[in-house]
Amino acid sequence: xxxxxxxxxxxxxxxxxxxxxxxxxxxxxxxxxxxxxxxxxxxxxxxxxxxxxxxxxxxxxxxxxxxxxxxxxxxxxxxxxxxxxxxxxxxxxxxxxxxxxxxxxxxxxxxxxxxxxxxxxxxxxxxxxxxxxxxxxxxxxxxxxxxxxxxxxxxxxxxxxxxxxxxxxxxxxxxxxxx
Length: 179
Hints:
The chain has about 180 residues and is an all-alpha fold. Helix content is about 80%, strand content about 0%. It is built from 10 helices and no strands.
């Protein structure tokens, strides 16, 4: 619920930045390797994406976005512990980054660590109170913990902020059957 949306948004933003700038980053730079990784990620070529993000990190160990995106790729490969490690580092480097908390929360949720997921979704919301996806994700985690009244509050807020009502309702119903 929402990871594909984040990936697509990330790719659109990066492509838009490249178009507006008139050209991409200089070949061989950390930014260039990040862009290559994003291209591989978009194609579902996760191992190659991870290689490119790793090279970006080698060139710039403070590059929070490279850690974040590598964590995203690790998550898609099911390497959840490695994803958490990269999200941890991205958050350490940029503690105000709501999306990193949201994505780490998603990974915790995949690991069945719903309380930790809720903590991260809550932090993402604190950092960005208009973050509909974080409300939607937290509604899902609350649902898995049988906290339906809390889930309903977050469901309503996510919809108020523009999250698709029918899509979220379908996901919440799926999660109720799963618990």
